[in-house]
Amino acid sequence: MVGRIGRRRAVAHMNLAAAKAGLRLGQAIAHATALVPGLVLHDLDAEADTAALQRLALWAQRLYSPSVAADPPDGLVIDATGCAHLFGGEEKMLIDLRRRLTRAGYTATVAIADSWGGAHALARYSRRPVFVAAPGALGHALTDLPVAALRLPIPTVQALAKLGFDTLGELEAAAKGPLARRFGMEPIRRLDQAFGREPEPIEPVFAPRTPRAAKIFAEPIGAPETLARYLTQLTFELCATLEAKSLGAKVIDAWFHRVDNRVESARIALSAPARDAPRLSKLLCGKLETVDPGFGVDKMVLAAPGAEPLTYSQDDALGGPRAADLSGLIDTLLARLGPDAVYRLASTQSDLPERSVRKAPAAERPAAFSWPVDWPRPTRFFPRPEPIETMALLPDQPPAWFTWRGVRRRVRRADGPERVFGEWWKADAELARSRDYFQVEDEGGERYWIYRDGDGEDAATGTQRWFMAGVFG
Amino acid sequence: MIQTPFHPSPHGALDALRSKVRALETPGRADRVLPFGVAPLDARLPGGGLAFGALHEVAGGAEEALHGATAAKFAAGVLARAEGEVLWCRRQADLFAPSLAQAGLPPARVIFADAGDEAGVLAAMEEGLRWPGLAGVVGEVGKLSMTASRRLQLAAEKSGQMAIVVRRWRRVADAADLGQPTAAQTRWRVSPLPSSPLPPSVPGVGRPRWFLELLRCKAGEAFDLELEACDAKGHLRLPAPLAHRSAGASAGPRDLGQGRAVA
Q1: A232 to chain B nearest CA, in Å?
Q2: pLDDT digits (tens, 9 = 90+) for A91-107
Q3: Interchain pair B98, A343: CB under 8 A
Q4: I need a labelling partner for A128 at 20 to 30 A (CA). Which of A53, A439, A462, B21 fits?
Q5: What CATH code would you report for B36-254?
C-alpha cells in the first residue's frame, strides 16, 4: 500500500511477507522497490478504508459491546467493561473475536487492557495474536514495548529513537519536563493514556440510521438550567426525527462533550418504546444531576440506539375499556427510585413460600399465577423466619402454645399441617427435608403462620424446630 | 304559626345548603364512590361508599400497628373491587404477593415501588396519583404530616384516584401518632377478631373477622362494626347470626346499635 508522507510516496501498509522481506512503515517507495524486486504496489484509498472500518465497528457493536469505535487507520476499540462474562471470560472473548475476523478474511491481533492506549499498544506490538493484560498489570506489560506503540507521529518516534528512547519503560522512567519542552505535551499525554492515568472516553459509532440530535455551542454552557433547556430542545428534535420514521426510543443516550476534552454521559431506559418529548425530556433532565459539566459543555449529542417501530393505534371506543398505558409512570419511578425498585411480583413453580415469588419487570403483565387459592397465605411474610418456642403434643398437631418475641400465646384454633417438601432437584441436601406449616389463631384473634422444620418424627427431615413465617390479615 | 313562604320545607333548605358547602369543599370533582356492598357500612359513609379522588388512612389495632397485616389486606380488598391497576409503595418488602392475590389483586394488577425512606414512599405515591389510569395508590408509612397528607389529598382530587395510606409503625407506642390530624377524608382502624366459628366437631380456623372502626370521617360520623374479612374478590361480609357465637365475638358494649338482621 502506497501512501504519502508530505510530498514523499511511502509505505503506508504492508502484509506479513513484505515485513519479512525487511520493509518498514514510512519507508520511501523507491527504497522499498530497490530492496524487494517485484513488489506489488497499491494506492491507498483512505476513504474506502475508513468506511470499511466503520462497517466493522458496527458489526462488533452488535456482537460485543454497545460502545465500539473505529481506531483509524487500522484498528477497532471496544469498551468491553462488563461484557466479557457473556463469552465466558476475557480470553475466550478475544479468541472468539479473532476467530470471527479471521473467517471474514482479516488478519488481526487483539488485546485487552485497562486503558484504550494500553490495549492499542499491546495489540500491535506484543507479538502475540491474543493478549490479556490482567487488571492492574498493565504497566508491567507495557514496559518492553517500542515507543512506536504510543500513537505518536512518525517523526516524533524517530526523534525519540535518536535520543535513545526505545521502549516505553525508558520513556516512563525519563524526566517529563525536558521531554515536554522538546516534544510538547503530546508524548506525555499518550504515555498517560497508555498507562491508564488519563481517561480516554470512547465515542461509539452510530449505525447510520440511529436517530440522533446534536448541538454545538459557540460558548460552553455549564449552568444546570441552561443544560436542561438545551437538553429539552434536543429531546424535541430527537422525537421529531423518531416521529418521522415511526420509531419509538427504547434507550436514549446523552453525551456531554466538555471543553477539557472529556465526555460525560447519561442514559435513560424505557419500559416501552416512546417518543413523547415532554415526558422524555423530564426524565433526561432528572439525570442531569449525575452529569458534571466541569468548565463547560460545548457539544451535546442525543441518540436513540435500537429504536423500535412505534405506531399509535386508534382507540377502540366500541371494544370496551382498554388497559391504561402505565409505561410513563413506570419509567418515571424507575428513573427516580432505581432500576430494581419498580417491579411486579409473579409466581414461580415452587411450593416453598420463599421461592414462590419472583420479581418481574413492571411492564410485563403476568397473566396467571400458580399460588394456592384454598390455602390461606399470610399478608406479611418474614424474609427471615423467626425461631419460636412451642409446646407441641403430636407430630401432626399444632402446638398448644408458642412464645414469639417474648410473648406467650395460647393457640385457640389451628389449621394444618400443610406439608412442603424440599426441592431435591435444586440441592441434594433438600432431598429428605420437609416442613409442616400451620395457621394458628391465638386468644385475641391474631392469626399467624408458623412451621416446623421437619415432620416431627424423623431427624433426617429437619431440625424439628419451630419458626414464625408470617402474619395473616 | 305562619310558615315563611321562602322555605316550604326546612329539610330542602338544609339539603341545598349541604350540597353548596360540599361544592365549596371539593371544587370540580364528581362524587364518585366505591361502595363496600355492606349496607350498614355504606349507609353511614357520605355518598354511600369510600370516595375516589380522596386520601384514606388505615391502621391496624394493637400489635397490628407493627405488622399492618390487617390494614394492608383491607386496602387490598378495597382496591380489588375498583377497576384498574394498583401502585403499592413501600419501604419494607415484607408484603406477601400470594396473599394479595387471595384478596382479589393478582400479579397483573399490582406494581410495587420500593423507596428507601418514608419521604420516598410519599413522593412515589404522589407521582402515582398524577398518572391517570390507576385504580389507586397504596403507601405504607408511619409518620404522615399535615403537609404530606394535604399534598396527597390534592393529587388524588385532581386525578380522581383513590389514595390509601397504610399506617405502620416500628413500635406499638408510636401508634399514638394516629391521633394527629391529617387531611385524609377517612381514617380507619382494623383489628383482628377471633375467626367465625365452625360447626362444633370441625377443627380449624374459620373465616377471619375484623373489628372495623371508622375513627374519623369528613362530613360523616365515626362508628365501628364487626365484619368478616375480605374474600377472594375483596368483599367484606356481615357475620351471620349464629346460635353458638363465641363469647369473645359478641361480648362488649361496642356491638350495640348495629344491624344484624341483614341477609
Answers
A1: 21
A2: 888 999 999 988 988 88
A3: no
A4: A53
A5: 3.40.50.300
